[in-house]
Every structure is written in C-alpha cells, then in structure tokens.
Amino acid sequence: MSMTTARARLPKPRGTLSERVFQAAREPAQEARSTGYLDVEPDSADDAAITLWALYELSYRGFEDVDDAAEWDLDLLRVRRRLEADLEAQLRARWPGVPAYDGDGGAAFEEAFFRWVEEFEGPSLSRFVQRQATTEQVLDLLRLKSVYHLKESDPAAFVVPRLEVEARAGLMELQYDEYGGGRPDRLHAGLFARGMAAVGLRPDEGAYVDEAPTLVLEQNNAMSLFGLHRRLRGAAMGHLAAFEATSSLPCRRMAQGMERLGMAAEMIDYYTEHVEADAVHEQLAVRNICAPMIAVDPAVEADIWFGAFTCLDQEARLAGQLLEQWEAA
Ligand SMILES: [Fe+2]
Ligand SMILES: [Fe+2]
Q1: Which of 138, 236, 150 is nearest to 188 (CA)?
Q2: What's the pLDDT tens digit per position in 173-186?
Q3: What is the whole-number distance in angstroms between the Cα of residue 266 and the centre of ligand 2?
Q4: Ion ligand 2, residue ranges at CB < 5 A
Q5: Is 7 helix (H, G, I), strand (E, B) or coil?
C-alpha cells in the first residue's frame, strides 16, 4: 500500500461554534467575521472539542478544503486560544497535584514516576481485548485510536527545539524510532495505517474523526495543547513518559486479543512492535528526557506530573466509558 493517503476534509460540525468556525476556515468572509461571528460560546463540550481539534489540525497536515494560511489566521487563533484556555483549566482542575516522594529530582524522581504509573488505578481496555472482546469491538476501538495513531508522535515532535541539550537528545532518540529510524516503511503511524487497511478500515488520517466521542478528541487536543505551547513543555514530556510507560504490556495484550480473534497480521505487528519499542521508550522518556529537564529547571517538574496525570486520567475515563458500553451490549 502506498503511504500517501487522501488529504482529510474538515469534520462534521457538532454545534454552533464548530459550524461557524469551519465555515470561516473554508471561506474567509471578512464581513461575517467583523460582527463577532466567531465569538459565540460552544453549545457543548463536544462542540468545543471538535472545533479545537480541527483548529489544531491546521498545524499538522491541514485539510483539503481549508487554505494553509488559516493556521495563522488571527480570528481563528483567537477562538483556539479561548478553547485551549478552557481545556487547560479543566485538565488542571482534575489534577490532584505532585505526588509526595522522598528526595527530589534525579533518581528519586525516576523511581517515583515509575512507581506512580504502576500504582495508578484504572480500568483496562487491553485486558478486555485480550480475553473477551469481539472483532466488532476491537474494530470500534481501532477506529477511535486511529485519530491519534495515524499521527503518532507528531505532537511531541513540536517540543524538540524547546528542550535543553540532554533532554533534546533523549527526545530525538525516541522520536527517531517512532518515525521509523530513517525507514518510511517502519514509521509507527505508517505501521498503524497498514494495519487499518489490513483489517478492512480506512487508513487515512481523520477518516473516523466524525465518530470519535468527545473524550477521544480531548485526548488528542491535550497532546496538541501541550506540544504547541513552549510554556507547557513539561506537561508534553510528562504525558509522553506516562504514555510510553503504560504501553508495552497493554500492547502485548492487544496483540494476544487480536491473535485470539484471528485478525490481520499487519495490525498485530503494530502492537507487537510496541511491546519492545515502548519498553525502551519509557526508559528514555523518564530518565533521558524528564529527569534532565528537572535537573536544568526544577520548576518544570510540576507540569511533568500534570501531563502524566492527564494522560492516564483521560485514558482511564475513555476505558471506563467503552467498557460500560461493551458490557451493556
Ligand atoms: Fe510508537
Ligand atoms: Fe513509543
């Protein structure tokens, strides 16, 4: 399969704000905008999330039906700023704060981080997939996960030039692997796309955004928020560390579940690849990125924990939602 896929078009609006913003992005009609056309509140969390998701997408691959210049359109940026301030406030309100541990920074931080991840309580989607999910349920999950996996690692890539030498080298080592180590056919997003096609799903970015629940959009928005603001580089790297540190074992379970269901080898390969890769990535993220960041600037530690909490908290909430739906079915 060719790795070049169709460029996405804007998703479906989910309320007044997204309707207006998408219209403005498509046809930059100045007169409509000067009258506060975009200054409406979102109708719902869903309306806010899809609007912000689409505005962020302008900084990745963009949309076929939106001019590339829209990324830096001041009216759209003003909407983005409002929505991301709300999102950040909501995420910070959920965060219980830095966990107490003995010592500060360095090895003490590293051990405390791994312990905290291990002790984090949350329902497990991968265990359900491993033991009892149906093929339909796994395909549902893959559609939701595709919103991120088809742009895997891209949010963290924005952070590279914002780090000091040691952490920058650590992040590049991790990213080099995520992006295939120089081999386009090994790029993780591409492996996932190949898996999608092999299980009969669409491999193009944004293909399933319209069916993504609010929480999936918010997961993606949190990563973009952290990645695009230098101020939030700690949160971005804490999120990355928590993501990698909760990936290896769940990926093994996902692969086992798909094997149990006789699903396509290409998708199983994506997960198998991550069993070993992420066991390395979690070490890099914690010891070679987060710890050196704290050594240079201890003030960044709080946001590292904030980003890490956000990652696990959002995933736990999504898992809870999906498991409830699946068990009810
Ligand atoms: Fe990956
Ligand atoms: Fe990884």
Answers
A1: 150
A2: 999 999 999 999 99
A3: 18
A4: 278, 281
A5: coil
Q: Ligand 2 centroid to 277 CA: how many Å? A: 6
The amino acid at residue 217 is L
> What element of type H or E holds 193?
helix 188-198
Distance, CA of 265 to CA of 273 (rounded, Å): 12
Q: What is the DSSP letter of 42?
A: P
Q: Choose between 6 and 242: higher pLDDT.
A: 242
Residue 196 CA to its chain's centroid (Å): 18
pLDDT digits (tens, 9 = 90+) for 92-123: 999 999 999 988 778 899 999 999 999 999 99
Tokens 């149990």 correspond to 260
Distance 314 CA to ligand 1 centre (A): 19
This model's pTM is above 0.85: yes
**φ, ψ for residue 56, nearest 5 deg:** -65, -35
R_g (Cα) of the chain, nearest Å:
20
